[in-house]
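Much of what follows relies on a compact textual record of a protein's fold. With that in mind, consider the following protein and its fold in token form.
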Amino acid sequence: MTTNSRKKSCDRCDYQNPPGALVCRRCYALLANQLETGSRPNTTFNLNRLNKTGLLGPSASNGAPVVESALPKETDRNTIVFKIMASAEEIRQPLTGGALLIGRQDRRKHIMPDIDLEPYDAYRYGVSRTHAQIYRQGNAVYLQDMGSANKTYLNEEQLEARSPAEVKNGDTIRLGAMVVHIRFE
């Protein structure tokens, strides 16, 4: 058997991830030595394959452990952090004013989202220009799909367009095929 057919141990948390996983299902760290030297990852996205490889994060439906978050409650902090799973980069945005538009910038159409995912290859992942919004209301934080073409998912549950769903610390959202892990600081 090749090395890709064995479980992959995460360097950060020691979780045994399934063969072929690129991201740890427990802590979302990038797994070392997943790509052979000089190779490039496949850029064609099959959501079922992403879920099996761990890119969509923990999910009770796929047998991965669901880990309770030890992070502070969303109402305790005023900054939301979007961890882009494909790049492991993070976007920090204050969550103190009104709704934050999530999407991709289009200068010609004067669309300038508060959380611009264009630098992360958002078009290729199917992120709409005005894909979703996130906002605080009272003691809760809500995510709402804005009628996007490729849908918005909260912990792999598809959101109905313009129907808000409460976001908790440690949740995973998917905008089209782009997976983002949420935490509050």
